[in-house]
Amino acid sequence: MSKEDWRELQSFIHDTFRIDPSVKEQADLLMEGEPEVQTFDDAVDKGAKTRKKSSTVTITVLRDNMNEIEKTGELRCITYLNHDTLIIDNSINSGFSGKGVSIKYTGQKLSSSIFEFTDVVIPDEKEPILTIEKQKLVLDKSRYVVGDSLYGHIYLRMIDQSKVKYYAEGFFRAKVAAER
Question: Are the C-beta atoms of 146 and 177 separated by less than 8 Å?
């Protein structure tokens, strides 16, 4: 058994990452006929319009013991390759505010986070410190090069210091681009 196969087996046992070629068919089936989301980034990056970048990832935020629920959909997926690091960005961005899921994968390490930003500044408000409770990433293959199609699924559960819970879950697909 190769070192890479061993890592993948251990990751699968701990249920954080696995390779599953069938995720491509699952993603295509769920996203068939769905329009591609156009965002502020598409207006700025002329090459973004020519890439496939669909996502069914939804971000849910549960505040106040589940009495306040925020749900964000219609995210777009953009993927970059920076040396040996695959950066997958499922997000929505108006130019003034945005929210998304950032995934970084090197083949040895997986790092995921949910983020949001706004141009509205509230004095003395601190950014939440998020802790991962559970993360699962499925990709259609283990290695990518610029120009490849990438298909995947993410499940991410995080909590902040105020006990607000953040969830992200869904399928995504994109063409791998070079780091901009």
Answer: yes
